[in-house]
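debug: dumping io for the single-chain case to check the tokenizer round-trip. Nothing else runs in this session.
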Amino acid sequence: MPLPETVTSWPELHSPEESEKAQTPVRGAQQASKGDAPSTHHEDTRPGLGTLRRAFSRASWRALGQAPGEDPSLLQRSSRFLLRPFRRSLDGGPAAAPRGGHSPEGPSDITDGGSGLSTTRVGPEEPEQEEGKSVADLITERRLLAAFEQLRQLETRLVAQKASGTFEQDPTGFARRAMDVCLHYDGLAAEIGAVVRETLGAGGAGAAALAEVARVVRAEEEAHPAAPADGDFLLTPRRWRQLWEDAVRRSARERVRQAGARAAPAAAEGASGLAQLLAELGGLVRGDLLRVRREVQPAYSAAGLPAWEAYLRAFHDAVAQRLQELARDARGCEQLYVLLDWAANVYCSPDFLGAPDLTLSTEPLPPLLAPAVWARLESDYTSFLETKITSCFDGILQLEQSRWVSVEAPDVLQGLYHTPLSIDIHMLVAEHVKAAGAISAELKATTLRICSRALGLFLARFEKAFLQSEAVSEPHLGACINAFEELRTRLLAIFPGTFEELEKPLVTAICVFQKRLLQGLQCDVQPLFRVLCTKAWLTQDVLQPLMDKVVAFAHHLEHVAPLWAQETLQEAHRFVVREYLAQVLRPRERFRGVERMTGSQKMGLDAQAIGDTFQGLGSEATWLGQAIPCVADILGETSKDDIGRHLETLIGSYPDIRRDHVVAILALRRLGRRRNQRLLQQAQHLLRAAAKAEGSGASGSHVLFEEIQVPTSVDLLITCI
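debug: decoded output
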């Protein structure tokens, strides 16, 4: 029995020219983008059909990947243009005869439900077209679910016709109908992408359009749960959920690109331009995500599309890509820090979205910057930071030098000589360490090490520059001691475990300043010791001018840190007693008889005056009080047998005394040879015992006589013989 003749309104696709005409409107409507996705349709086994299908598929995928600036309705107009011949055939216009020579006088054609397609009447009565609208019209009106339902009916009917053998003699006719179904499916997919692109735009896509997208995606998944076993591309899953997610990602990338698009941050703009761009980027992402949570997610939630998770991940990936691009162009310490700080503290902040119930950590997200990129940014930042901190220390030194040039006395703050040196250094270190700590613990530790090294180099430079300047005076030396002591105590307390290695250099520098301070006192009072143990000394108060200078010196120590002020005062006390004894043991004149007794009494009075003065100034060096009185007692002792007792007291109190000192003291008395030998033997025994006690730690470490040089003289030789 011959097959019935077929009358169809499908465009002829036999020749390349006709195929080109069918595809031209689609190409003209949408240009292909670099990110064209491949078609998911299975290839047909018939020769020539796969090529034709790929041509239509590529055109539709180009429509899906259209550029943001293009009109999304072009694809809709293209679909209507392609189907215009089909609609004319339904209205009574001429229909093209398929290849096969069938007569156009076959059974009259009918319209497949809403698609505008004509097929041979086979099987039961076909559903009527909804309100006379085609699938293309429904897509244009964004009645996506209705369009899909009609298209699904056509697809099901076409598959059934193929299975019944209707198209065994007309494979080209089946190809035309199948391609039309695929084109309309692609039109639906393109409209889904258009809705997603419009979602976050100025006007938005509207809740109804979003709900339509969600419903049609679910409907397609239910209609095509799995690929058919026979490989028929008509029933292949369209994977519109993946298409929707891809469209969301493209939309997020486009939105993120809009931030700072007018003014890209060049190196010349510095950190302010980059900060402004990041602020704009943060505001855009924040506003879009809040809009997704409040408007977009409710519209999708009914159909079960995870809108919040998809948009969150899409924006996260887009921001990460944008940040990596900015990281490649970032220059200088400030720009690098702005980038690191925004990534670590602004974007990752729990309140980034400005709502307590919304955070970026609702699901595990990959790092905003790849570990390698983050490590490179930190490395570049620390390199610039090391140079910057060194430059800052140079600036601090220059400021101090400008104060030295003015030769003005330092201010007294809270009773102490003050220089801004310590405050400047503390602020410098604290500022950079705090900034680095806000980014990461590793960067904070690195910054601390950089500051420690730079400060160590600065201390040596500062000490050298200050001691070579003309500003070396008691007030300025006291101010430097105070500043370095504050650095030693506060830096170690604020940053434990980092600046311990600087404690020794700081103490060494303080000791250098302290020594220089004492040198000033020594230069002032040294000439006054020359009048001691002279004839004039017996009748005049030559010690008072010396004590006046000591009191004036101690006045400066009142404005020095208490610990170092006390130590310096004790050193001054020790210096005065030592120089006094040195003058006594090297007398310019020898006293005999009454003069010797007067000299002994005078030494006792001087010892009392020195002790009272330093005690009044606050010196705690009470161990110095026995030295001068013991020598005075030996000099004025009337009972020669008691001299040994005084020697025993002297050696017991000052174990650093040597035999030379004992000989010099005995030389002041001019005792006989035998008595001197007996006293020297006794002293030698006491000295050995004292040395043994000192070696075992039983005695203190005070030094007094060890620093007194006793020159050899005739009197000493006579005493020793």
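debug: round-trip ok. Residues 374-513 form a domain with the Tetracycline Repressor; domain 2 fold (CATH 1.10.357.50).
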